[in-house]
Amino acid sequence: MRQQLAIARWAHVLSAGWVFLLALLIIADVLGRTLFLHPIAGTKEILQNSVIAVTFLQLPLAVYSGSMLRTTLVLDHLGPRGAQALRIIAWLLGAALFAAIAYASLPSALTAVRLGEYEGEGAMRIYTWPVRFLLVGTCAFAALAYVSVLIADLRGRNGDSDLPAAQPVPAPTAKPLTGADLT
User: Fold this and answer.
1) Digit-coded pLDDT (tens) for 40-79
2) Residue 95's closest CA among 162, 52, 140?
3) 72 and 168 Cβ atoms separated by less than 8 Å
4) Which residues lie below 8 Å from residue 172, measured CB to CB, with a gap of 6+?
5) Which residues have CB under 8 Å from 35's CB, separation 6+?
6) CB within 8 A of 100, min separation 6: which ones?
7) Does the pTM exceed 0.90?
8) Which pLDDT tens digit goes with each residue over 78-110?
9) Are 8 and 64 within 8 A, CB to CB?
């Protein structure tokens, strides 16, 4: 699992660098529009495809670090075995969801290559197949991440794994409601 986590971290760093380059592109495009009345061709298409790529590149590390959106409303009221059972269900559902997305997205990625699918007209054409294959790959990697976290959970990892520890959310303390103080 060390190698998987290293790849997930590398993908996260790649996405952060990509965001930085997109910020520079946006600044250059705005300056080009404002100062020279000439925008950078293809900026819209590049941004359109990049948002998807950046989002999905961050997905595997979010799974490994326990940063995926979750609520502990039910989990807080279960015992240790019930909490583990609920986590196992969540890991399995996450793996199934991202495996299904990868499987369903593969035909359209292959079709994009076969047809030479692109976005944009005129001077700038952005091929869509790299982002489509990135979506397939990162979703498959996220499914693998869910399975890896499931296995680690079943083995009873106690902070000795390579995974960053997901900190439990503290239970809210009950305050009596008095007057206008509703906090």
Assistant:
1) 888 888 998 899 999 999 999 999 988 887 777 787 788 8
2) 140
3) yes
4) none
5) none
6) none
7) no
8) 888 888 888 899 999 999 999 999 999 999 999
9) yes
